[in-house]
Structures are given as structure tokens and as C-alpha cells.
Amino acid sequence: MAHQLVVCSDIFGQTESFKNWCNQVLPADWQLTIVSPYISSVNFTDEALAYSAFQQAGGIEKYAMRISTALAASLSNKTVIGFSAGAATLYKLLSEKEYSQSIDRFYGFYPGQIRFFTKLKPSVPSQLYFPYKEPNFNIDKVIQELALHDNVQCTKTDYEHGFMNLSSRGYDKDAELSFTAEIKRILSPQAEI
Q1: What pTM does this model have?
Q2: Is residue 6 classed as helix, strand or coil in its secondary structure?
Q3: Sign of the torsion angle spanned by Cα atoms 170, 175, 176, 180
Q4: What CA–CA distance (Å, rounded) separates 193 from 179?
Q5: 91 vs 37, 40, 48, 111, 133, CA distance in Å?
């Protein structure tokens, strides 16, 4: 049965390095759908510009509509991955609608906005990777609240927010290599055996 990987970007959108990462982890014979908060390609020089553009593009609510449309238009057998705003938006969507028949698993990296959705429980098994700290909230408290949901697993990393994004000031090459290898291993068809 065909499988699809749906990857939702952070506020930097669909950069070349992001597309390359998606293709790097994509198993053979899987289809790839990339969702960005923006209609066209963008290139930001820093987080402040990217955040401003994200807000102008409609923020989480508008991004949720874009992701929801992509999920509805795709195959029934899929795995979803989100980064930052993409991860928080996916978490919210997967909690508001039943997706367990079409999505087998969700992986979310540094979903800072999830702090507003900790009472929500996603309909699919979810693995969340947090940075070691966030400037605007207590990560440990958010993780404790999310851990109350039986299908949510949280990992607090040793890295900063944005550790997987080459454009982010929190980027960490070792973290990217390590978590890329982990995602590739998880998505590998042999991992299902």
C-alpha cells in the first residue's frame, strides 16, 4: 500500500535546505507533500523577518487551513512531521479532528506554540522533540501537561529552538545529523517489522 510523508515547515517556509532534508528522509516508494505557511517561495535572513511574514500570512489559523487541505487531499496512509509552527499547528489539527484512520504517526520538532494547546489530545500517536529551553515559557511545565496524554511522548533535547533548520540561529549540525538519522530509521520499511 502506498504511503505518504507530509512535512510542515516552520516560519521560514519551504527553503532549499528544507526541501533537501525532506527528500533525504523520504523512503523509497513514498510520496512527499511539503506544506509551508506561504503560497510562494520565500527567503528570510533572520527569525524576526520570518515571524513577521508568518503573522502577515495569517499565523496559526491560516496555516491550519493550508495543512488541513493538504491532509484531506493526500493518501489515507501517511506519516506527518512538523517543525515549530508547523508542529504546533499539526498538533492542534490532529486534536480537533479524528485522523487515526489516515495518519499512523506524528513527529513534531520544537513546537513552541503548543503551549496554548496542552489540554488537547491528538488522535494519533505523537512524538514531540523540545529544545532544552524557550524564552517565553517553561518547557518542563508544558512537557508535564502533555505527558498526561497516553499517546503523546515528549523528548527534551540538549539543543535550542530551530536546531534542525539551517536558517535558524538555534541550528546545530550535530543535532540535525542525529535526528535526521533517527527519522530515517523510524520511517524505514524495516522499522515496521
Answers
A1: 0.94
A2: strand
A3: negative
A4: 21
A5: 15, 24, 24, 9, 20
Q: Specify the CATH number for the domain of residue 58.
A: 3.40.50.1820
d(CA 142, CA 120): 12
Residue 103 has pLDDT above 90, yes or no: yes
pLDDT for 9-68, tens place per residue? 999 999 999 999 999 999 999 999 999 999 888 888 888 899 999 999 999 999 999 999
C-alpha cell at 28: 523509497
C-alpha dist (Å) from residue 146 to 8, 30, 94, 127 = 21, 30, 14, 11
Among candidates 62, 61, 64, which has minimal Cα distance to 94?
A: 64
C-alpha cell at 120: 488537547
Find the domain containing 151 and state its range: 3-192
Given 3-state DSSP classes, what are the helix, strand and coil percentages for the chain, each rounded to the nearest 5?
40, 20, 40
For position 1, what pLDDT does the model report?
60
Q: Do 156 and 138 touch, CB atoms closer than 8 A?
A: no
| Number of domains present in the structure of the chain | 1
The C-alpha cell that represents 132 in the structure block: 532544552
Strand, helix or coil for residue 151: coil
Cα–Cα distance list, 36 to 131, 163, 183 (Å): 22, 18, 20
